[in-house]
């Protein structure tokens, strides 16, 4: 073997690289490889030129063990999946690598503990907001973290010095006991090497001490003065920001008032984000500016000739829709007539109130101002900004207007059915209009059942199938001929002025009678006025509802709110087309109030569309009919988190549910009861328990992996969902979780032995 190049020692935490011999197989033996140690990861390449494009293997030192075989050999393993047998050219070089690896491992373990991916993790005590404006100065906090890391480096170096010092003392003791024999030369060389190793480790500790002292001397004298100056400056900046925001709002309100004065009477009241009573906002409100986009199409009343020509068809359509509505209202009576015994058992009376929300003053900006650009699930949040339901229960709220799917299941025409499915897709957002609270992040394995079979004919089950990224699988089936399933992963970013929430995943609706299979995705949600003013929510984006059986399609557009638009706020428009692209229905309305549809009698190209020069499509339509209208909120909803009638019942205790059901989650229950301090403590306990369970799964998975795996083999997620199984979706080709059955049967038997203990 050729002589390996000795790596250049670098300070702890920096990149460490050099040539080391690595065992490959019994034919080739040890081969020279270029190793790079950086950020707690040890990677290797065949040559230095490969560093830019081809990595042969990487091992994470945070979970690895480092052992020494003999004078030059050492082994790095992460539990069996990856094991590197390495050999240095001499013992001194080997010890340099061992020292660098142990320092990097200690730092990686600390970093992993500090940024533990706990989802909703938050500090044990909320940040104390002082009159000076904020918690500790960011510069001081950064310096303290740096000093703390240096102290940890000193501690690690101290352990290494003790270890090598003991070895040196043993060698010296052996040398003292020797007589002048032939072994004297070997022992003297061994003592020399031990002394060299001790010197290398001591130098590392001395360098760490020097860095520590330099930082301390640089910062200690001006910390107090800098901290006071920063506090005063922050107070001035926050006062200036608030004044600017108020002035900005007054100017915008004045502009809108002038615009309304010049607008036609039909456009009055359409400039604000709300309608009716909700449009009376505070002076501190701050709204999101969106450029007004020209409509993609125009609808005009159809010519009288179309009314005469199609009178028989339209009357048939109206009678069919009326028959559907009537049969839907009579269906529960028919069900009771078929089963007379059910008439003797009254339906369960659901609760209509929950405890009022406590009036705790806590500034959202004080929590989120240091989290701009971060994932929402990584932001430490106390329960003060939650609402007392979980994300699984919020997902079940999509069934608030399940009767739209009931009506769709009765439709004979797939295009009419598409109208109801599109209205159902829009109705899911009506429950969010005033809901600015954040639902609880579910624990891994948490479930939620919504059994409304006797009242409404459907059953729904949700399960948290992944924690990072957070993903929930949902399956609902109805006796009225439809099935709904989805797997949603929520990505979110805090942008400073607003919060962006991006749901990822596909929703499926399948109708048993027609075998029509519909899919669509969700639009983005934006929470505005994070800094100052009253929080408000907007939905924006586009949805394509596709019937994979017939090829029909409905394109829905959620218009973002704009100050300069004279159109109604929260507007949604859409066109239902067949597989050939011919328009049959036009949908219009708002996502927080109602949706209507109009039958298209004729379409043509009209004028140009604004600056782009595109021609708008003009649809001649019949009179609009109402598809869906939002149910009014319960009395006192403003003190109950603006919950709908369905949402008020979601966390109501029920007997017989699984031990993993969200209703049994103690921190959520404590928050609903108004005991927020206890809820925060319980929430922290549950998340720590979840982290412990995750680490245990990782250890078990590592121990079960065989040594026959390749060097580059990557570990896999060992968690398997209980009621859903992962497979490829035959429609979209996505890897999703689909309900595999067994939950409702287990509930009937009362057999929950397979459920994990997550609470």
UniProtKB/TrEMBL annotation:
Its main location: membrane. GO terms for cellular component: cytosol; perinuclear endoplasmic reticulum; plasma membrane. GO terms for biological process: lipid transport. GO terms for molecular function: sterol binding. InterPro entries: OSBP_sf, Oxysterol-bd, Oxysterol-bd_CS, PH-like_dom_sf, PH_domain. Gene3D superfamilies: 2.40.160.120, Pleckstrin-homology domain (PH domain)/Phosphotyrosine-binding domain (PTB) (2.30.29.30). Residues 13-106 form the PH domain. It is found in: Membrane. Residues 114-143, 258-283, 653-714 are annotated as: Disordered. Keywords: Coiled coil, Lipid transport, Lipid-binding, Membrane, Phosphoprotein, Transport. It is a peripheral membrane protein. Residues 661-702 have a biased composition (Basic and acidic residues). It holds the Pfam family Oxysterol_BP. It comes from the Eukaryota. Residues 220-254 form a coiled coil. Belongs to the OSBP family. This is Oxysterol-binding protein. It comes from Astatotilapia calliptera. The lineage of its organism: Eukaryota, Metazoa, Chordata, Craniata, Vertebrata.
């Amino acid at each position: 073997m050729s002589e390996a190049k000795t790596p250049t020692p670098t300070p702890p935490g920096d990149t460490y690289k050099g040539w080391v011999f690595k065992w490959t197989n019994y034919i080739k033996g040890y081969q020279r490889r270029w190793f790079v140690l950086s950020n707690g990861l040890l990677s290797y390449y065949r040559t230095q030129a490969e560093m830019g494009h081809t990595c042969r293997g990487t091992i994470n030192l945070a979970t690895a063990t480092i052992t020494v075989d003999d004078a030059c050999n050492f082994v790095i393993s992460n539990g069996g999946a990856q094991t590197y047998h390495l050999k240095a050219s001499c013992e001194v070089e080997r010890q340099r690598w061992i020292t660098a690896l142990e320092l990097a491992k200690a730092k990686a373990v600390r970093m992993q503990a500090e940024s533990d991916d706990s989802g909703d993790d938050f500090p044990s005590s909320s940040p104390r907001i002082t009159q000076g404006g904020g918690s500790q100065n960011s510069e001081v906090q950064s310096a303290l973290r740096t000093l703390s890391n240096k102290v940890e480096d000193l501690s690690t170096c101290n352990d290494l010095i003790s270890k090598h010092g003991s070895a040196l003392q043993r060698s010296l003791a052996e040398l003292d006991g020797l007589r002048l024999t032939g072994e004297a030369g070997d022992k003297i060389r061994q003592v020399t090497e031990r002394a060299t190793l001790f010197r290398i480790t001591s130098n590392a500790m001395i360098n760490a001490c020097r860095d520590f002292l330099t930082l301390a001397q640089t910062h200690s004298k001006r910390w107090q003065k800098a901290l006071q100056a920063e506090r005063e400056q922050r107070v001035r900046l926050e006062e200036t920001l608030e004044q600017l925001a108020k002035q900005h709002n007054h100017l915008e309100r004045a502009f809108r008032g002038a615009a309304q004065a010049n607008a036609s009477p039909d456009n009055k009241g359409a400039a604000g984000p709300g309608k009716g009573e909700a449009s009376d906002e505070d002076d501190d409100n701050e709204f999101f500016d969106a450029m007004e986009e020209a409509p993609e199409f125009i609808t005009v009343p159809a010519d009288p000739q179309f009314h005469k020509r199609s009178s028989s068809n339209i009357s048939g359509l109206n009678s069919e829709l009326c028959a559907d509505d009537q049969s839907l209202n009579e269906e529960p009576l028919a069900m009771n007539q078929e089963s007379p015994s059910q008439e003797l058992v009254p339906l369960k009376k659901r609760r209509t109130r929950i405890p009022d929300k406590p009036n705790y003053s806590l500034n959202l900006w004080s929590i989120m101002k240091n989290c701009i650009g971060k994932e929402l699930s990584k932001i430490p949040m106390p329960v003060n900004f939650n609402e007392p339901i979980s994300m699984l229960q919020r997902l079940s709220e999509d069934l608030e207007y399940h009767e739209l799917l009931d009506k769709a299941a009765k439709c004979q025409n797939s295009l009419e059915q598409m109208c109801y499915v599109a209205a159902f897709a829009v109705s899911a957002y009506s429950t969010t209009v005033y809901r600015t609270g954040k639902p609880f992040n579910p624990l891994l394995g948490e479930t939620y059942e919504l059994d409304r079979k006797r009242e409404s004919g459907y059953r729904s089950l949700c399960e948290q199938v992944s924690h990072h990224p957070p993903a929930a699988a949902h399956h609902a089936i109805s006796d009225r001929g439809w099935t709904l399933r989805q797997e949603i992963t929520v990505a979110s970013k805090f942008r400073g002025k607003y919060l962006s929430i991006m749901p990822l995943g596909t929703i499926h609706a399948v109708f048993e009678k027609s075998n029509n299979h519909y899919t669509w995705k969700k639009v983005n949600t934006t929470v505005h006025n994070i800094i100052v003013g009253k929080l408000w929510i907007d939905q924006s984006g586009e949805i394509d509802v596709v019937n994979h059986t017939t090829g029909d399609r409905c394109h829905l557009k959620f218009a973002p709110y704009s100050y300069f638009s004279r159109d109604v706020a929260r507007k949604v428009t859409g066109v239902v087309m067949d597989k050939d692209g011919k328009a049959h229905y036009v949908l219009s309305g708002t996502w927080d109030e109602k949706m209507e549809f109009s039958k298209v009698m004729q379409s043509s190209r009209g004028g140009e569309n604004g600056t782009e020069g595109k021609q708008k499509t003009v649809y001649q339509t019949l009179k609009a009919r109402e598809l869906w209208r939002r149910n009014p909120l319960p009395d006192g909803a403003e003190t109950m988190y603006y919950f709908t009638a369905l949402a008020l019942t979601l966390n109501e205790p029920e007997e017989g549910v699984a031990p993993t059901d969200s209703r049994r989650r103690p921190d959520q229950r404590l928050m609903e009861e108004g005991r927020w301090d206890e809820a925060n403590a319980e929430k922290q306990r549950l998340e720590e328990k979840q982290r412990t369970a995750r680490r245990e799964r990782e250890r078990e998975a590592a121990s079960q992996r065989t040594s026959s795996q390749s060097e580059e083999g990557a570990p896999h997620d060992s968690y398997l969902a209980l009621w859903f199984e992962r497979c490829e979706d035959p429609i979209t080709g996505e890897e999703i979780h689909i309900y595999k059955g067994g939950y409702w049967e287990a509930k009937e038997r009362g057999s929950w032995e397979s459920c994990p203990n997550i609470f």
